[in-house]
C-alpha cells in the first residue's frame, strides 16, 4: 500500500477518536452547566487535573509499550510483542488500583488541594471520588485503544471511542437532566462509558488472535527501562495538561477572581479539542514510524514526518480561524447570553486561540522522536511546552500584564518551545546524515556505469543540512 494512503489510514481514525473524546468531554460540561449551574461547571474544571493524572498513567505505559510492540512486529518477533502487550495490561491495572485507592482514602484533602472553594467543595469531591473508583477502566481502555492501532486495526479504535462517547452522552442526559443526580451523575456516566469502551477493545483482542492476543506472559520488568523513557514524553503531555489547568485555576483566582474560572473552563475544553486533533495526528503516525524504523526503512520515517507536519499546518490554521470567528457560538453553548462573564469569555477565548497556530508542531515532533527512540529530544520538547516554559510564561506575563498575560501565556510558551523543537530537529537530521552520507556518482573513463563514492565535499555538504520542511521551523 502507498505510504501516504497508509498514513491517512492510521491518522484519520486516530484523529476521529480524539475528536470524539474531546467532544464528549465538552458535552459533559454542557450538561453540567445547564443541568446544575456555573458552580458545578467550575467544579468539573477543578477536578480535571486529577482526570489528567489518571490518563497519564495509561498514556505513560501505553505509548512506550506501543513503540516497542511496533518495533518488535517490524522485526518479525511476534512472541516478544505479545509478551509486552499482556505484561503491560497487568502492570497498568495494578498501578490504577493503587492510585484510585489512595485518592479515595484522602478525598477531601485532594479536593482542597485542587482548589475547591466552599461553593464547589461538595461537587469536586463527588466528581473526583467517582472517577477514582473507575480509574482502572480509564487506563486499561486507553492502553487497549493504543495497542489496537499497533495491531494494525485503527478502525477498531474509532469504534471503541464512539461507543464510549455515545454511552457517556446518553447517560449524561439521563443521569443529569432526568434523574437530577448532578455532578455525581455526570462522573458516573463518564465512568460507565469507559467500562463500555474497555469491553469493546477486550472483545476485539479475544476474537482476533492473529497477532496480539490476550494471554499469559513472562514477567520482564526490566523492559520498563526502555518503555518508561519512551512513554515519558506523551505521559508528561497529559500530566502537564492537568498541572497547567491547576496552575491556571489558582492564577485566575489570584489575578481575576472566581467568576473567570467559568471562562477558563470553556477555554480548556476548546484547547483540549485542538490539542487532541494534533495528538491524534501524532499518535496515528507513531506506530507507522516505529514499524518502518524496525524494518530499517528510515527514509519512510522521514516521509511520514513530512506528511504529519503538513497536516498539522492545515489544522493549525483552521483551529485559529474557528477560535477567532466562532467564539460567540462556542461560549453560548456553555453559558446563557445574560451571564456576567459571557462577553469576557468570548474575548478571553479569542486571545487564547492564537496559540493554536503553534502548538501542533511541537506535538508532532515530540511524537516522532518517541517513535524513532530519541526519548531525550521528545522529553525535552514535551516537558518544555507543557510545563516548564508555560509555567514561566504564565507567572511572568500575569504579573506584568494581568488577565491578558494569562490568556497569551500559552502562545508565548509554544513559541519558545518551537525554537527548542527546531534545534532538536536540526541535531537529529545532522546526526542522521553524518551516519548516512549521500553517495555521489562518477563515471570512470568511457564507462557509462556510475560508480558511487563518498567525497569529502559531499560529506561536508550534507552535514547538518535538514530537509526543507525543517528549514521552515528554523
Question: Nutshell version of this structure?
Answer:
This protein is mainly alpha-helical and 474 residues long. The chain has helices at residues 3-35, 38-74, 78-105, 107-113, 121-133, 135-150, 154-178, 182-207, 224-255, 260-294, 298-325, 327-332, 342-352, 359-371, 375-401, 403-435, 456-462, 468-473; strands at residues 440-442, 451-453. It has a two-stranded antiparallel sheet.
List the helices and strands and how they pair.
Elements: H1 3-35, H2 38-74, H3 78-105, H4 107-113, H5 121-133, H6 135-150, H7 154-178, H8 182-207, H9 224-255, H10 260-294, H11 298-325, H12 327-332, H13 342-352, H14 359-371, H15 375-401, H16 403-435, E1 440-442, E2 451-453, H17 456-462, H18 468-473
Helix pairs in contact: 1-2, 1-7, 1-8, 1-10, 2-3, 2-5, 2-6, 2-9, 2-10, 3-5, 3-6, 4-5, 5-8, 6-7, 6-8, 7-8, 9-10, 9-14, 9-15, 10-11, 10-13, 10-14, 11-14, 13-16, 14-15, 14-16, 15-16
